Amino acid sequence: MKKLLLTATLLAAISATAMGANTSGLLDSGKSDSVNVTAHYVEPLAISLDLGTINFGDVYTDSVVSDETVTATITGTQDETFTYTVSTNGSLVKINGAAAGVTYNGATTGFILGTVDVTFNVGLDTTGVTDVAETDVDVNETVTMTVTYDSIAGA
Length: 155
Fold this sequence. Notes:
Blueprint: H1 2-18, H2 25-28, E1 46-49, E2 64-75, E3 81-88, E4 93-95, E5 104-105, E6 109-110, E7 115-125, H3 132-135, E8 143-149
Antiparallel strand pairs: 1-2, 2-7, 3-5, 3-6, 3-8, 4-7
């Protein structure tokens, strides 16, 4: 029993020594480092469309209406590149001759002088409309153009 008590006392003495005061100057002095941050400012993208509304008028069922051309003026930072998509939220409007309801992915384009004009075509395809309930209703679909910078040149 005495042997066991002596071992416990020895462990307590070693632990107290390990938690002794710091005598190293390296641990008491502060250290610092720095990181250089470089930023490249870009202008927010802006889109202006030449047509706010496209009205095809009265349309016969089982027909394809000729396309209307829309010009989008996009403004951003010179020498940056962007990608754009044009989509519709319905099933009758077609973009650039693609099947109705398909999203059009535009090519990567660069700002030469900070402004670029991009054109796309909006058409109407009613060849799939055969149900009487579908023929006597107005089509109210929204065409959305989304523009995003590809990457920031200075980054």
